[in-house]
Sequence to fold (94 residues):
Amino acid sequence: MVGSDSKSMLNSFAQKRCQRPITKQDIVYTVTKYGDQFQATVTLNCIEGAQFAGEVSTGQKEAEQNAAQMALTNYGDEVAIVMAQPAKNAGGKK
Fold:
C-alpha cells in the first residue's frame, strides 16, 4: 500500500466490503489544526462507525491520507482478501 492513494483504496475497500456504492456520509474525514500541523480522523459509518486517527502532518490532505492509511492498516488481512475478489459484473453485459 505504500506509495498508493490511501483514501481511494479505503473507499474501494469499503465499497467491496459493504457490497454497495459508498456515499459521502459513509466515509467522513474530520481535520483538526494544531498550530501549523494537522491531524485527521476518518469515521467509517459504513463499517459500524469505526474511527481512526492518522499521524500529524504539515498538510490537510496528507493528514487525511494518514488517517485512511491507519484504517487500512487496522483491517490489514481483510483488505487484502476483499480487494483480491473480482469485481461484480466483471464479464460485462451482453
